[in-house]
Request: fold
Amino acid sequence: MDLSKYNQMRHFNATAEPQGNIKKAKGELIFVVQKHAASHLHYDFRLEIGGVLKSWAIPKGPSMNPEKKRLAILVEDHPYDYKDFEGTIPEGNYGAGTVIVWDQGTYTSINNRNDVTSQLESDFAKGHLSIILKGKKLKGEFDLLKFKTKEESSWLLIKQKDQYATEDDILKSTKSVISNLTLEEMAQQVNEKIKR
Ligand code: MN
Reply:
């Protein structure tokens, strides 16, 4: 668990993103999905493990359909405080573009052991996480599976078959679960603030 890469990549006098500190949820572990209009639109899927947010960029976004396996690229650990970050990362900064909190909630490991965090840490190291999400949009069982053959950073996010599995496209739900704004509305709001 190391936030030095995260901190190195950012200038905190130029971006409103939080500075990296290791921190834990008081109750259940949390997860967050941020919709991020960077050079390419993607969804950032983040799981609290050991005081940081393990993070994957999902180009096509998560799916509630077990048939739709989604490529998830492992990126640098993000700080716990990133869970509430939305707004615009200014031009010229790493990840420049608008961010909304597309989904947020708590989660746990399916492989139940007394110490959930050490279970998650060993599953992460093995490249196979089995989790239950309790979000506003994403619910139920998911697997995150690391490719054996491809480069280190390639994983798949796969919805498991349960009562929440559906062919309906969850990405049609476009608003932030915090501000209730779409990415476009958020970008506009930030622009208006800058103009004032
Ligand atoms: Mn991103």
About this structure: The radius of gyration is 16 Å. Residues 4-195 form one domain. The chain has one domain: 4-195. Residues 36, 38, 42, 44, 57, 95 surround manganese (II) ion (CB under 6 Å).
